[in-house]
């Protein structure tokens, strides 16, 4: 029951029914549902939620570093701005707790992944349907119409990046399942993602798509076939791309000119480079704990020394400017632990000769997912407070638990061949 409630909460989190149905908003339905699940987990499954595991410790360290950034927020008088974002971070952390507290079998993990795909279908599919009606477009730089999302994922850059990272799961799920119906759905959803990426006019998303293709190529076992397939796909799809979005894509070449120029360039890319430089100056002013969660835009706007407005548009600069060295160390610990956990699970499955299984496929998918998210962040996006780090962390935890259980079960059965050998306890400390 708790597992299905967690899946239901995921759908609620992404669809935001409280903003669509006033009555649900009044009773704060999402908060009540989430609080009920967490209370039940604490009393019924605390051995899973508070298990002594490296991934759990990394998540706690990362959360602690974000809390310490309030020291910087107090120094810069931006606690009022930091507090609402911190509440959103707590919601994301609760999703992590729900995942590690309820997903405890490979069947449940598979179901959860499909629930996540469904959530992405809501997030990406709704603006896609609105675009067919000519809605949710707003003019951006150069007068180009950009497609916006709905609710908390409205910004076109964020919408485009979500579509890019969703393509990772679509790609790996497509090659894993043999069902024609599933393959047809995934192809259709993939085309929807590509159209949404195009309509957002987000150069971050365009760059992210290039980065993703590079990672697909590097992880592909049949590289020549992959290159030919990509060439044919681009050739066909390019005929459906309006010229205004082609020009938007070609404008990425401005990056070299902007970086080399001494003066700030009067373009969006020029503004982003100025933000990166100013974020570095903010970090030098507040090197230990940063200036506070989501406070860079306030500091750069009010202090004449820093002449820009807006977010950093760079993950590394966001970490340094807003959480300092403490935040950087915690984030590196978190992401490297995620990577090592995913890799360890994959290694266990390989030793069990289960490379064709669902979990092994997921480990490959989320390793590419993590690399893509990190690379896009380092070059084009401020995503430190995104929920994705908590979702990937949760999936890494439960995957290692499940694979370790499979390994232990096999070791218990091998010596005696007894099918009734004692089953391993899921709450053991899974080292990495």
UniProtKB/TrEMBL annotation:
Compartmental location: Membrane
InterPro entries: O-antigen_ligase-rel_domated, WaaL-like
PANTHER family associated with the record: EXOQ-LIKE PROTEIN, TEICHURONIC ACID BIOSYNTHESIS PROTEIN TUAE
One Pfam family from the record: Wzy_C
Protein name according to UniProt: O-antigen ligase family protein
Keywords: Ligase, Membrane, Transmembrane, Transmembrane helix
Membrane topology, as annotated: Multi-pass membrane protein
GO cellular component, one term: membrane
Sequence intervals crossing the membrane: 27-46, 58-76, 82-100, 112-133, 153-173, 180-198, 204-219, 226-245, 315-339, 359-381, 387-404
Start and end residues of each O-antigen ligase-related domain: 192-332
């Amino acid at each position: 029951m708790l597992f299905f409630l967690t899946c239901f909460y995921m759908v609620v989190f992404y669809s935001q029914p409280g903003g669509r149905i006033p009555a649900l908003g009044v009773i704060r339905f999402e908060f009540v549902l989430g609080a009920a699940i967490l209370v039940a987990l604490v009393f019924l499954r605390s051995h899973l939620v508070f298990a002594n595991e490296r991934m759990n410790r990394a998540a706690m360290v990362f959360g602690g570093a974000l809390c310490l950034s309030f020291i910087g927020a107090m120094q810069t008088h931006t606690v009022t701005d930091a507090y609402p974002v911190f509440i959103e971070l707590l919601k994301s952390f609760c999703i992590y707790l729900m995942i590690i507290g309820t997903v405890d079998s490979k069947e449940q993990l598979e179901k959860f992944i499909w629930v996540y795909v469904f959530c992405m279908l809501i997030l990406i599919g709704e603006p896609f349907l609105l675009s067919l009606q000519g809605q949710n477009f707003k003019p951006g730089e150069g007068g180009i119409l950009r497609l916006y999302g709905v609710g908390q994922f409205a910004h076109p850059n964020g919408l485009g990046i979500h579509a890019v990272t969703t393509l990772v799961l679509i790609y790996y799920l497509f090659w894993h399942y043999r069902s024609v119906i599933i393959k047809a759905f995934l192809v259709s959803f993939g085309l929807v993602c590509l159209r949404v990426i195009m309509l957002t006019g987000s150069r971050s998303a365009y760059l992210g798509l290039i980065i993703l293709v590079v990672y697909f190529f590097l992880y592909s076992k049949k590289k020549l076939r992959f290159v030919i397939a990509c060439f044919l796909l681009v050739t066909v799809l390019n005929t459906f791309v309006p010229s205004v979005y082609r020009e938007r894509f070609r404008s990425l070449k401005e990056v070299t000119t902007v970086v080399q120029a001494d003066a700030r360039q009067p373009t969006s890319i020029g503004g982003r480079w100025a933000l990166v430089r100013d974020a570095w100056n903010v970090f030098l002013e507040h090197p230990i704990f940063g200036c506070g969660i989501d406070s860079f835009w306030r500091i750069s706007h009010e202090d004449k020394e820093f002449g820009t407005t807006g977010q950093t548009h760079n993950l590394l600069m966001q970490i340094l400017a807003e959480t300092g060295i403490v935040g950087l160390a915690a984030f590196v610990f978190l992401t490297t632990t995620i990577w090592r956990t995913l890799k360890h699970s994959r290694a266990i499955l390989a030793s069990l000769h289960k490379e064709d299984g669902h979990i092994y496929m997921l480990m490959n998918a989320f390793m590419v997912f993590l690399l893509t998210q990190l690379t896009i962040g380092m070059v084009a996006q401020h995503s430190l407070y995104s929920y994705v780090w908590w979702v990937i962390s949760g999936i890494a935890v439960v995957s290692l638990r499940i694979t370790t259980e499979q390994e232990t079960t096999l070791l218990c059965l091998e010596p005696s061949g007894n099918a009734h050998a004692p089953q391993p306890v899921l709450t053991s400390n899974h080292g990495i």
